[in-house]
Amino acid sequence: MKKFLYKLKLLFLRVLCYEKPLRVAFTKYLSLKFSSFRPHYETLIYETSKNAIKLGFKEIDVIELGVAGGNGIKSILKYKRKIEKILNIKINIIGFDTGTGLPNSHLKQDLPYFWKHGDYRNNNLKDLEKEDNSIKIYEGNISLTIDKYIFENKSKIGLIFFDLDLYSSTKLFLDKIEELSQKKLLLPRVFCYFDDLFVADYTLNDINGEPLAIEEFNAQSKNIKLGKTFDHITDFKFPLAKGQIYTLHDFENEDYNKYIGIYSPNSLSSKNNEKFRSLIDD
User: Fold this and answer.
1) Which of 47, 65, 68, 94 could cysteine-pair with 120, CB 3.0–4.6 Å?
2) Distance from the Cα of residue 250 to its chain's centroid
3) Domains located in the chain, CATH noted
4) Pair 48, 76: CB distance under 8 Å
5) Is the dihedral of CA 139, 137, 96, 25 positive or negative?
6) 210 with 170: CB under 8 angstroms?
7) Quick one: which H or E segment has residue 177?
8) Distance CA 249, CA 241 (A)
């Protein structure tokens, strides 16, 4: 009984001192409770699709790195079916996973005290492809499967969900970004959602894990950079995600400077009769 009361006291203090509105915690709880409820996935896919259309593309790839049980792929599929109808765009779903769970690693940067070899194993990855013909799963070591994807692929990558957990695995993929750029497989700006920028025990930070892989990538890459999105009170587009979004800027992309902004030619003119800009379309 004492143990239960003590845990209850800690929970009360944590809720009482939570610095964000409690609706944020409640929404996060729903996303953990219901695996297919991922509002951050939906809004990222939607915004990516809008940007692709403005650039003149009618087909894009959405990539998930680290498929595990497949809940992420199924969520992407659910949202992409809705968005395809609304925006008239084709969205391909690409998954990468070893199929054998997390690889064995003794690198301190991989947090072996937190991540365990074999976690998130899935022996039936290919079954996900039966869900829809737009799904393609690359099973095996990502250092090899990414080459196969580059050889086979023709569409532009618009969005990448990073859920590889480990520094080393994340770095393996980031090391291939330059080749993806050279093969012209990237949109000029690619949303990147990093699932593991935070773990609850506070031992993941800028010296290990995904944050270190990102820092090293930016230090080594000259013409492609991962930019961290600034948190701002007026940002409302990306529920549950804005603290984990980076944008991959491919500066030498032929479409990088192409205008895709929200303003029409006369929007700032005295001739503009529009009194309001729609938040729905923004």
Assistant:
1) 68
2) 17
3) 41-250 (3.40.50.150)
4) no
5) negative
6) yes
7) helix 177-182
8) 19
